[in-house]
Fold:
Amino acid sequence: MASEAKSRGRRRGLNISAQQLLLIVGLIIGLSVIIDFNRRIQAEQRIVAEANQLRAEVTALAATQSALATEVTFASSDAYVARWAHGEGRYVQPGEMLVVPVAPNGAVSAPVPAVAAEPEPPGNFQIWWSLFFENAPGS
Structure:
């Protein structure tokens, strides 16, 4: 009987059966697996978002490259050289006469209309003040 009382005294502090211990260990392992799975899903979503962003950047850069290649092709053509020479270079073709418009002396240039300044929006304090005191019912 004394050994039975001693074994009861020892078990009094922590009364967990083997099944309960296995259940706790299984819950801990399951929880860690779920947390790791969630972390991997978030990492995959971040990678997919970055891949989509990079795909959009590559598409935009390819369009820019195509436009620049078109400009380079046009800039190296005879049509561009002729246009520049006739417009900015002020060269004339045989049979043409170069005319440069000059303003007469004392000519008044067109007045530049003044741009009205936009009123400054009211501050938060002014908005609250008008809400509470200026639009009060019965005033």
Residues 18-75 form the longest helix (58 residues).
